[in-house]
């Protein structure tokens, strides 16, 4: 099957986003050149987005690669209980036996993906919003 979207978020490429040629390093960011497809995932319980770049040179033709963390892993483990993970994953199938181990991956450990998409609307356009149905994370 053809790959629909291949979207790396740790690479360097020589590019000319404006007048100058640059080595653009993307670490936790994705390329968002004009009409370029991308993926911006939310969290294990929040929507993900298929996107289309706007080629905004002031943003080095880039966008965020995800919602990003609201809480560090340590802070998430301190603040979030297994029961919170189950509650936050309401409507998404996952292995409840792993709820305790997944405290640092809980939806509340990540920023609000809707707010992140609004904040970067000049960089990338939403093509499709995907609601999570099932999540599996290996130990
Ligand atoms: N669709 C999912 N998105 C997730 C999940 N866990 C985290 N995330 C989001 O992805 C980005 C990028 O994560 P990275 O590990 O590649 O750096 C992260 O900021 C979250 O917004 C998940 O289980 N499913
Ligand atoms: Mn990453």
From TrEMBL:
Keyword Protein biosynthesis applies: no
GO terms (BP aspect): DNA repair; RNA processing; RNA repair
Record-listed E.C. numbers: 6.5.1.8
Catalytic activity from the UniProt record: a 3'-end 3'-phospho-ribonucleotide-RNA + a 5'-end dephospho-ribonucleoside-RNA + GTP = a ribonucleotidyl-ribonucleotide-RNA + GMP + diphosphate
UniProt entry keywords in alphabetical sequence: GTP-binding, Ligase, Manganese, Metal-binding, Nucleotide-binding, RNA repair
Name of the top EC class for this enzyme: ligase
Binding site for GMP: 9-10, 41-44, 48, 65-68, 137
Residues binding Mn(2+): 9
Molecular function GO terms recorded: DNA ligase activity; GTP binding; manganese ion binding; RNA ligase (GTP) activity
Xref: SUPFAM superfamilies: Hypothetical protein PH1602
Pfam families in UniProt: RtcB
InterPro entries per record: RtcB, RtcB-like, RtcB-like_sf
Organism domain of life: Bacteria
Cofactor binding description: Binds 2 manganese ions per subunit.
Active-site annotation: 65 (gmp-histidine intermediate)
Cofactor: Mn(2+)
Record-linked PANTHER family: RNA-SPLICING LIGASE RTCB
Protein name: 3'-phosphate/5'-hydroxy nucleic acid ligase
């Amino acid at each position: 099957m053809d790959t629909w979207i291949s979207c790396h978020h740790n690479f360097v490429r020589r590019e000319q986003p404006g007048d100058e040629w640059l080595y653009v390093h993307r670490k936790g960011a994705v390329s968002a050149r004009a009409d370029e497809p991308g993926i911006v995932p939310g969290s294990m319980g929040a929507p993900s987005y298929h996107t289309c770049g706007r080629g905004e040179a002031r943003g080095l033709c880039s966008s965020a690669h995800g919602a990003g963390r609201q809480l560090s892993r340590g802070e998430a483990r301190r603040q979030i209980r297994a029961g919170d993970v189950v509650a936050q994953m309401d409507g998404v199938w996952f292995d409840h036996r792993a709820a305790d181990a997944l405290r640092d991956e809980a939806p509340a450990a990540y920023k609000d993906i809707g707010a992140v998409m609004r904040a970067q609307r000049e960089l990338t356009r939403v093509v499709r919003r995907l609601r999570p149905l099932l999540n599996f994370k290996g130990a």
